Amino acid sequence: MTNYTLNIKQKSVVAVGEVDSLLEELLPSRSVVIISDTNVDRHYHSLIERYPHILLPIGESGKTLQTVENIYHRFIELGVDRSWFVLGIGGGIVTDVTGFAASTYMRGLPFGFVATTLLGQVDASIGGKNGVNLEGYKNMVGCFSQPDFVVCDVTLLKTLSDREFRTGLAEIIKAAIIADEELFCMLESCDFSRLKREPKLLREIVFRAIKIKAAIVECDERESGERRKLNLGHTLAHAIEKCSSKLNHGEAVAVGLHLITQLAVERSLLAWEDAHRIDALLQRAGFVLESPVPARDMLAAVSKDKKSEGRDIHIVLPESIGCCRVEKMPQAEFIKCFK
Ligand SMILES: NC(=O)c1ccc[n+]([C@@H]2O[C@H](COP(=O)([O-])OP(=O)(O)OC[C@H]3O[C@@H](n4cnc5c(N)ncnc54)[C@H](O)[C@@H]3O)[C@@H](O)[C@H]2O)c1
Ligand SMILES: [Zn+2]
Q1: 120, 140, 159: which is the final residue of a domain?
Q2: For a tag site, which of 2, 37, 264, 307 has the least CB within 10 Å?
Q3: Quick one: which of 161, 175, 291 has its CA closest to 239?
Q4: pTM of full prediction above 0.90
C-alpha cells in the first residue's frame, strides 16, 4: 500500500497509510507515553497497550484545564521528562488536549498524533492548534505548536459511528468548496453509504482534504488571513450549536454552509447553479439543511458571542466551487443579512 505524505512548516509530517508501519518509521527511539480515550482503547487496545498510557474521559466536558492538570500529575508519576515522546491516539478532543499538555509540560515535550476520527484526520490533528475549553467557551486556552507527525489510517475509521463519520464529511465538503473543485466532483460521484468501507477511495479523499488545510496553514499558521477561510459555514454553525444540542458539529456546519451559500447567491457572488450543487451534495451525504433553531435565536447567539461581541467579524463567502473570499463586516451588519 502506498503511503501519502506531506510536510507542514518543514517540521510536521502528515502520513496517510497503515498505522503500524508508519509508527515504526516515525516514532523516535525514546520513551513513549500514550494519551487516548476509553472508546479508542476499547476498539484498539493492542495499539494503546504498547506503552504507558493515560485515558481521557469522553466528550467536550472533559476538555478542560483540570484534565490537563491530571495529565501532568500522571507524567510526574511515570517519570516523564523532556527525553520522552508523547503520542496522542484519538479524535479531535484527544489530539487538542495532548498537544496542549505536551507543549506546556516542562516547557514542551515532542509529540505526535494518530488521528482516529474522520474529523480528526482532515481537520483537528492538522495545523498545530491545541487547547481546551474554559467557562463554556470552546478552545479558550491553548497554543500553536506543530506535532512532529500525524498518522492517518482510514481503516481505523470503520469502528466510527455513521454520525461521527458524517461529521468529518461536512469538513471535507467544506474544504472542497474552499479550494478544490476536483475533490468536490469526486464527492459528487461517490457512494457515501459505502465510503467507510472503501479504503482506497477514502484514503485519497482524506489526503486531498488534508492537503487543502496544510496548504492554508503553511501560509498562515496563526490565522491572520488565509486560515480564516477554514471557518466557512462556521459562524452560523457555532451559533446553532450554542442554541441546540440536537445537532453535532458536522451537522451544524452543513446548515451553516447551506445558509452562507444562500447569502452568497443573494449578494450575486455565487451562481445559483453552484449553490444548488452544494446543497445537493450535502443532502446526498445525509445532512438536513433546515436549521433546528429559529433564525431569530440563531442570530441572537451570534450577537451574544462574547468572543466577538461588538467587533467586526470575518465572514467567508463562496464565489464558486473551489474558491471563496473573506469579508470583514460589523457583527450587526452580518445579522441584518439574515433578517
Ligand atoms: N485543533 C484544531 O484545529 C481543531 C479543528 C477542528 C476541531 N477541533 C476539535 O476537535 C474536537 C472534535 O473532534 P472529534 O469529532 O474527533 O471528536 P472526539 O474526539 O470527541 O471523537 C468523537 C467520538 O468518537 C470516538 N472515537 C474516536 N475514534 C474512534 C474510532 N476509531 N472508532 C470508534 N470511536 C472512536 C471518541 O471516543 C468520541 O466518543 C472538538 O473539541 C473541536 O474543538 C480542533
Ligand atoms: Zn469545524
Answers
A1: 159
A2: 2
A3: 291
A4: yes
Query: For residue 231, how far is its CA from the centre of ligand 2 (angstroms)?
Result: 7
**Measuring from atom 27 of ligand 1, which residue has the nearest CA?**
91
Would residue 93 count as lying in a domain?
yes
Residue type, 138: K
Q: Are residues 51 and 143 in the same domain?
A: yes
- Identify the weakest region by mean pLDDT among 5-9, 99-103, 282-286: 5-9
Q: Please list the residues that pair with 149 across neighbouring strands.
A: 13
pLDDT in tens, 261-308: 999 999 999 999 999 999 999 999 999 999 999 888 888 888 777 666
Q: In the chain, how many domains are there? A: 2
Q: In 10 A of CB 271, how many CB atoms?
A: 14
Ligand nearest the Cα of residue 231 is 2
**Per-residue pLDDT, 291:** 92
pLDDT digits (tens, 9 = 90+) for 53-82: 999 999 999 999 999 999 999 999 999 999
Q: Is residue 309 part of a domain?
A: yes
Beta-bridged to residue 329, according to DSSP, are 313
Q: Which domain holds residue 102?
A: 4-159
Is residue 20 domain-shared with residue 126, that is, in the same domain? yes
Provide residues with CB under 6 Å of ligand 1.
Answer: 37, 39-40, 43, 58, 60, 63, 90-94, 96, 116-117, 119-120, 123-124, 127, 129, 138-139, 156-157, 159-160, 164, 167
- The x, y and z cell numbers of residue 169, run together, are 464529511
Share of the chain above pLDDT 70, in %: 98
